[in-house]
Every structure is written in C-alpha cells, then in structure tokens.
Please model this.
Amino acid sequence: MNWLKTHRNDAILVAVLLAAAGALALFLWFTRQSGGYVSVQMDGEAVMELSLDKDIWIVLGEGERTNTLVIENRRARVVEASCPDQICVGHWPVRYEGESIVCLPHKLVVTVHSGLPAMDYDAVAG
Ligand SMILES: [Zn+2]
Model:
C-alpha cells in the first residue's frame, strides 16, 4: 500500500482533472449553438442559403453532378449524390453552427450558420 500512500494526491489530481474535462465537454455539448440556416457553396461560389426552419428537398447541381439536399426537423443532410465516394451521403445530418457537409468530387460545401439567411430561396420542394 506504499504506492497508494505516495501517489494518492496524484490520483486525486488526475480524478479531479478528468471530472473537470468531462464537465467542460458536457457544458460545451449543451451550449452548442443550433444553426439558423445553411449556406451552399459550389465551385467556391455561394449558391444559396436555406433556412433550417423550412423543410425542403432540393437537387443541387445538374447533369451527371448532383447532390440531393434535404432539410428536415432543423437538420440538413445529403440523401443522394452522384459522386464516386459518397462521403457526403454518409455524413451525419448537420444542425449546429459551424458543422458542414463537404462533397469533394463535386466541390460542394454545405455549412450551418446561426441567425437568419441573407438571401432566402423559395423553391418548391418536390
Ligand atoms: Zn459527395
């Protein structure tokens, strides 16, 4: 039990640090900012901004190069894409400020922002 005697304070310190780190992680998790809208970039250009308040189903791109973006329950996700790697389709739905879905082959970036969209896009959801 000698080890415990000499290392007891270290063990307590480690436990306290772990608890603090856990509390901080929890705090950050609960105070995450829900986004207000997503911006869509294609080929480095801002194409549109879509409010997360409105459910929408939209096909981005054209011809052989399409990504189907869906906004539902204040989350945005790519449900279908013609890209070879399908990484964008496999990405989890984004909803928090700063989260993004990237489709490298199509140079498509969907990013969540807080606040309201500057330009609203009133497409008819199909
Ligand atoms: Zn993709």
About this structure: The beta strands are 37-42, 45-51, 56-62, 65-72, 75-81, 100-103, 108-113.
